[in-house]
C-alpha cells in the first residue's frame, strides 16, 4: 500500500492519471490497530490528511499504481524486465565524469 499525496499527485495530474488514481484508490477515513480478536486497541481519524493536502490524499495498492503506469505508456515505451544495470557513466555539468559500478 502507498499513501499517495503531494508531489506524487502533481506528477499523476501531469500524466493524466489523477482521475484513475482517485478512482482505484482507497479513501481511508480511519486507521485502527486491533488485537488478535479483532477488537480495537487504538486509532485515529484521517480527515487531517485530507485537509492538509486539500483533498489530494489517497491510499493505493502498488499493483494498481503499476498497472495504471504501464497502461499509460503501453505501445509508446519499451519495458524490459528481469535485467539489471551493472554500471553507469555520466558527465556532470562541471565536466567531471561520474562512474558507478553496482
Can you give me a brief rundown of this structure?
32% of the residues lie in helices and 28% in strands. The protein is built from 4 helices and 6 strands.
Which labels suit this protein?
two-stranded antiparallel ribbon, 102 residues, alpha+beta
Number of self-contained structural domains: 1
**How many E strands?**
6
Globally, the shape reads: elongated
Main-sheet strand order equals 1-4
Q: What's the rounded overall pLDDT mean?
A: 86
The chain-level structural class is alpha+beta
Number of H/I helices: 4
Plain-language structure description:
The chain is an alpha+beta fold and 102 residues long. It has one domain. The chain has four helices and six strands; from the N terminus they run E-H-H-E-E-H-E-H-E-E. It has a two-stranded antiparallel sheet with strand order 1-4. Strands 2-3 form a two-stranded antiparallel sheet. A two-stranded antiparallel sheet has the order 5-6. The protein is elongated and about 60 Å long.
Give the SSE layout:
Layout (H helix, E strand, L loop, with lengths): L1 E4 L1 H8 L3 H7 L5 E5 L5 E6 L1 H6 L4 E4 L1 H12 L13 E5 L5 E5 L1
Antiparallel strand pairs: 1-4, 2-3, 5-6
Amino acid at each position: 500500500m502507498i499513501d499517495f499525496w503531494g508531489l506524487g499527485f502533481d506528477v499523476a495530474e501531469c500524466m493524466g492519471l489523477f482521475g484513475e488514481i482517485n478512482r482505484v484508490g482507497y479513501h481511508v477515513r480511519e486507521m485502527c490497530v486491533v488485537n488478535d480478536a479483532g477488537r480495537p486497541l487504538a486509532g485515529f481519524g484521517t480527515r487531517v490528511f485530507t485537509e492538509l493536502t486539500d483533498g489530494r490524499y489517497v491510499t493505493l495498492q502498488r499493483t494498481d499504481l503499476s498497472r495504471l503506469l504501464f497502461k499509460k505508456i503501453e505501445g509508446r515505451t519499451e519495458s524490459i524486465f528481469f535485467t539489471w544495470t551493472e554500471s553507469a557513466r555520466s558527465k556532470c555539468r562541471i565536466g567531471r565524469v561520474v562512474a558507478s559500478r553496482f
